[in-house]
Amino acid sequence: MKVLLTATVQSHICQFHKPLVEVLHAHGCEVHVAARNNLAEKNGLKLDFVDKVFDIPFSRSPKSPNNLKAKKMLKRIIDDGHYDVIHCNTPVGGIITRLVAQKARKKGTKVFYTAHGFHFYDGAPKKNWMVFYPLEKDFSRKCDKLICINEEDYQTAKAKGFRCQVERIHGVGVDEKRYFPVDEAEKRRLRKEMGYGEDQKLILCVGELLPNKNQKMAIHAMQKIVKEYPDAILFIAGNGPEKENLENEIKLCGLENNVKMLGYCTHLQDYQHICDVLVSCSYREGLPLNIVESMLSGNPVVATINRGHKELIKDGETGYLVQPDDADSMADRVLELLADSKRAEQFGKNAYDFAMGYCFTSVKKELEDIYFGA
């Protein structure tokens, strides 16, 4: 079987679809990728686990003329490739691929689309429902399987009568061999090796530096946290267009010694293994990997209330949920966990048990059923 994976950018395939490629290779499939090469921005991320890569100039902006060029290039690739399955991802990449793939679909090619979080959801702005809901429902006619990564999207697609087979997987998978709990002795060793104190309070925030990720909230929460723990550090891992704004916010808050920008980090597991708490401040999430990574590492989480966070975090059992932009409440919940090691440890154990359903092993079984099940 020959499979083409498409997305707007190649980093998306690197970060989210290695488990799928492993499943396909295990079944003897040839796997190609068509997406824009943005790997230079991602600090050494490599797309070296597929059989062929096409650099297609997709743009995240639907109005960009680059997408017309991308559409023509993708048409040639699909016409020449004779693929058995075309599996598309991301809003722009997904729409263009489904448009271009219709001729191949009539000849027997199956088209799959993974929705990594609909823009319409419970509590979303009305304009999202007016624009994105009819678009996604209409384009569901242009694929054979719609794969949702969270329960709310799955139930919405089923209830609203999307015109294809609707599947659900538990996220895109997190490597449980990379993210796992470490004992206190190993945690102390890693902290010493990385230059941090045994009793220093360390908080981690992971995500692309975008307005939606709202890292300013974590910075503001640190103003309250450092009053209790003056040497506490917030690590912000990720890159993106908000970098300068966040750096300015850190200076305005006088937190230059307490907030460390890590950039795009290829060894995040080290920070998960030394941190006390993970915080996540997003306004919108589909199914966030950073939360699963932290839970598999046995860490408690304090996060804002949104669709993806609510699916993963049971408030008061695996972590805490707070309102978006309520930095005081986030700080209070973090301080509770920093002051109560027994509660933090219990939350971490509960989180680990729950998150195992979202690890590579579990998700690969679900993907195998979607591709090769009866």
Q: In what order do the strands lie side by side in the largest sheet?
A: 3-2-1-4-5-6-7
Looking at CATH, which topology of the largest domain would you report?
A: Rossmann fold
Number of strands: 13
By oligomeric state, this entry counts as single chain
Give the CATH architecture of the largest domain.
Answer: 3-Layer(aba) Sandwich
* pLDDT < 50 runs, ≥5 residues: none
Quickly give the structural class: alpha/beta
First CA to last CA: what distance? 16 Å
Question: Domains counted in the coordinates: how many?
Answer: 2
Largest β sheet strand count, sense and barrel closure? 7 strands, parallel
Q: Looking at the structure, what is the overall shape?
A: globular
CATH superfamily of the largest domain: Glycogen Phosphorylase B
Number of helices: 16
CATH class of the largest domain: Alpha Beta
| Radius of gyration, taken over Cα atoms and rounded to an integer in Å | 21 Å
Question: Helix coverage percent of residues?
Answer: 40-55%
Compute the average pLDDT: 96
The helix/strand order is EHHEEHEHHEHEHEHEHEHEHEHEHEHHH
Notes on the structure:
There is one protein chain. The strands form 2 sheets. Strands 3-2-1-4-5-6-7 form a 7-stranded parallel beta sheet, with helices on both faces. Strands 10-9-8-11-12-13 form a 6-stranded parallel beta sheet, with helices on both faces. The protein is α/β, with parallel strands linked by helices. The chain has 16 helices and 13 strands. It folds into 2 domains: 2-173 and 359-372, Glycogen Phosphorylase B (Rossmann fold); 184-357, Glycogen Phosphorylase B (Rossmann fold). It has helices at residues 10-16, 18-26, 66-81, 91-100, 102-106, 126-139, 151-159, 184-194, 215-228, 243-252, 268-274, 289-296, 307-312, 327-339, 341-355, 360-372; strands at 2-9, 30-36, 52-55, 85-89, 110-115, 145-148, 165-168, 202-206, 233-237, 259-263, 277-280, 301-304, 319-322.
